[in-house]
Amino acid sequence: MTILVTGATGNVGRQVVEHLVKRSADVRALVRDPSKASFPAGVSVAQGGFLDVDSLRKAMSGVSTLFLLNAVVPDEFTQALVALNVARSAGIERIVYLSVIHADVYVNVPHFAGKFGVERMIEQMGFQATILRPAYFIQNDLMIEDVITGYGTYTMPIGTKGLAMIDVRDIAEIAALELLRRERSAEPLALERINLVGPQTLTGRDIAAIWSDVLARPISYGGDDTEGFEQNLKQFLPAWMAYDMRLMGERFLTDGMLPEAGDVERLTALLGRPLRPYRDFASQIAGSA
Asked: Which of 33, 85, 164, 234 is the most exposed, fewest CB within 10 Å of its CB?
């Protein structure tokens, strides 16, 4: 019985592979360029992409459980639909899909709306699936590390509602545990949605205060300017993606990313340890600054 991990060379996918291998799973990784892939011993590598249907068919042959992770790209929705249809044709019924929290709320944000469409397809097609809905990735703030440490300003548009930020390492481990739970179950498991959140819901000023503490100097919050956020992102991202991120930032300000009752306790029990807090991430960065 084989678990296929897509997005296997990315930060989340690579860690999912590592967790599965540590737990003695039979793992296959889908990659575009095998020469650039480095995995633990025993991982089989399948070359291909979501829009290369023949390569997908080959990669999914003999697979029992699928980890579906799509990058934020213009045709993300199409890629996911193709993958799910090929999976169904290959007889794969067990899936863990990485969606996003509040996919049904941030309906005007392209990559949120696309993921919600994929969720509905998974449900309508009757897959035995876990839909993971992570909040903001703590490691996203690596993009502005130099701004924080060099200019003393936290510039992400987090706002005052708060985001239940989660560490990527926790996301990957939870994904691996869910893959194994479905893979090793003798009986079909019902579709389930799990919010992936961190131990605290933090506002922009909360995060600036954490940075002030770990860096031992004042860090201000200056992130409510979503227009400026878009313009800054356009310096290193395509314009469509920068606009997508701006729309997301606007929903941060109006809606936040808030956990539901019991989310933190559920994840803590699943991991068997506390969730990693934002302060640990900031302290690590401060220690290497």
From this structure: 33
The CA R_g of the chain, rounded to the nearest whole Å, is 19
H or E element at residue 210 = helix 204-215
- Helix, strand counts (H, E) of the chain: 11, 9
Q: Which residue has the tokens 């949120």?
A: 112
d(CA 211, CA 189): 43
- In tens, the pLDDT along 265-284 reads 999 999 999 999 999 999 99
Are the CB atoms for 176 and 16 separated by under 8 Å? Answer: yes
Q: What is the pLDDT of residues 106-138, one digit of tens each?
A: 999 999 999 999 999 999 999 999 999 999 999
**Cα→Cα distances 196→33, 107, 130, 193, 271, Å:** 30, 19, 12, 10, 12
What is the dihedral sign for C-alpha 130, 135, 139, 140?
Answer: positive
| CA 24/CA 73 separation, integer angstroms | 33
- Burial code (b: 16+ CB inside 10 Å, e: under 16) for 241-268 equals bbbbbbbbbbbbbeebbbbeeebbeebe
User: pLDDT-derived band of residue 36, with 50, 70 and 90 as boundaries?
Assistant: confident
Q: Which helix (H) or strand (E) holds 54?
A: helix 53-60
Which residues, 6+ apart, have CB-to-CB distance to 33 below 8 Å? 47
DSSP string, 246-268: HHHHHHHHHH-B-PPTTHHHHHH
**C-alpha closest to that of 32 among 71, 64, 66, 82:** 71
